[in-house]
Design goal:
This protein is an alpha+beta fold and about 425 residues long. The protein is built from 10 helices and 21 strands. It has a 7-stranded mixed β-sheet. It is elongated. The protein starts with 7 loop residues before the first strand and ends in a 6-residue tail after the last strand. InterPro entries: Formyl_trans_C, Formyl_transf_N, Formyl_transf_N_sf, Formyl_transferase-like_C_sf, Met-tRNA-FMT_N. It comes from Papiliotrema laurentii.
């Protein structure tokens, strides 16, 4: 006789996904389990939302152990600069400590099989590459047990197979802020904003071995049709999505415990990517990007990376780039056709009662760009407004102060040519 705790069931149940009618899926085999001993891996506010919901749902867990990145020391520091180093502790670590949860960091799970020991500020990234290290999870997760559950959300590191193998495939889950397989990768929220999506979603997926793909596991939970405001920023979306992810995760865990969980494979043909963003992502490309796209980049990335360009080879950050609606009349713009090129900036002195601004010509809107012959593109340029800048090595300043400090060989007929098409 098969004991109840090992009962394998197959449920045939309709599941509507992504708001699409007529798409139905049946379950694969699932096991009736729970409550769980949980190993929770995460780092930021999105992962805090998931852990908080699980912590409050005392019916789904017996114990919780949290795994986070290590504390980071930022800045050069040292005695000569008065100990200017700053210690950065991720939000999930702080939450775990505040709630008295058992906590481990990545340095404690790395094994001596890593090809490089952790020395210096960049060594951790090298040692934690899945191809060069093996992780040993904390006790009791170093031994396989069907009551163990691996949960991840915004962890920032690929889980190596040596850790995944310690958990049953249905008991290793990830909370991902997109409707998978859309936006597989490290930055789904950022690319949702950059691409101007009007709605987004949250998925709970099974974690699979690295060789099967990133974010490629079967889907066991979805919350879709989440509105993305037209002026959404990354911090706003993070705050909005975090509790929703937690609610969906708890709902999914309760379905697993009840034996009603449904898993469906992803359609890889629909895959889009959300690669990691960095400083180069935030570089303005005026001849390729519309002013609206550059504004979206600002809203998606400025919490970490300011939009920037170069003027005569000198780096300058554009701290408040705004899209100027096409219906706006711009009397300051030169009437000379040869001046109207993406990357050309003018100083607008006409703003009464407000700080002065520069207006930067950008490519036409992306939906128009492909259909326009080159001869018509000047008539469909979009415009970016900037009032505050930060030149490299200098303080933040009003754009007029920066403009007045530019050399005469940079300014021609009250216009400046920015680096429109960087390599």
């Amino acid at each position: 006789m098969v004991p109840p705790s090992c009962l394998m069931i197959r449920v045939a149940r309709a599941l509507r996904v992504g708001g699409e009618r007529g798409r139905y899926f049946t379950t694969s085999q699932v096991s009736r389990r729970g409550p769980f001993d949980v190993l929770f891996c995460g780092s930021d506010a999105f992962s805090v939302g998931s852990l908080k919901a699980v912590l409050e749902a005392t019916d789904v867990w017996k114990s919780i152990h949290v795994l986070t990145p290590d504390v980071q020391v930022i800045g050069r520091g040292g005695r000569k600069v008065g100990g200017a180093r700053q210690v950065y502790k991720c939000e999930l670590m702080s939450f775990a400590e505040e709630n008295g949860l058992t906590l481990s960091t990545l340095s404690s799970v790395k094994t001596v099989e890593s090809h490089q020991q952790s020395r210096g500020p960049t060594a951790e990234k090298t040692a934690l590459k899945p191809s060069s290290s093996r992780w040993t999870p904390p006790t009791p997760f170093d031994q396989h047990d069907d009551s163990h559950l691996l949960l991840t959300a915004s962890f920032g590191h690929i889980i190596p197979n040596s850790l995944l193998d310690k958990f049953s495939p249905p008991h290793r889950l990830n909370v991902h802020p997109s409707l998978l397989p859309k936006y597989r990768g490290a930055a789904p929220i950022q690319w949702t904003i950059i691409n101007g999506d009007k709605s987004t979603a949250i998925s709970v997926q099974r974690l699979v071995e690295r060789g099967k793909g990133i974010d490629a596991g079967d889907i066991v939970g979805v919350r879709d049709n989440i509105d993305v405001p037209q002026d959404a920023t990354f911090p706003f979306m993070m705050q909005a999505l975090a509790p929703m992810g937690g609610e969906l995760l708890v709902k999914t865990l309760r379905e697993i415990i009840a034996g009603t969980s449904i898993a469906r494979p992803q359609d890889s043909a629909l895959t889009t990517r959300a690669p990691k963003v960095d400083k180069e992502t935030s570089r303005a490309r005026f001849s390729q990007q519309s002013a609206l796209t550059i504004n979206r980049l600002h809203r998606a990335l400025s919490h970490n990376h300011s939009i920037w360009t170069e003027v005569n080879g000198l780096h300058v950050q554009l701290l408040d780039p705004k899209y100027v609606p096409l219906s706006t009349t711009l009397s300051v713009v030169s009437e000379k056709t040869e001046d109207l090129h993406p990357g050309t900036a003018w100083l607008d002195k006409s703003s009464e009662g407000r700080s002065q601004r520069i207006l930067i010509a950008c490519a036409p809107l992306e939906e128009d760009l492909g259909a326009l012959p080159n001869s018509d593109r000047q008539e469909h340029l979009t415009w970016l407004e900037v009032r505050t800048v930060k030149p490299k090595g200098k303080k933040e300043m009003p754009v007029k102060e920066w403009w007045n400090g530019l050399s005469h060989d940079v300014k021609v007929r009250n216009r400046v040519v920015l680096d429109a098409t960087p390599a």
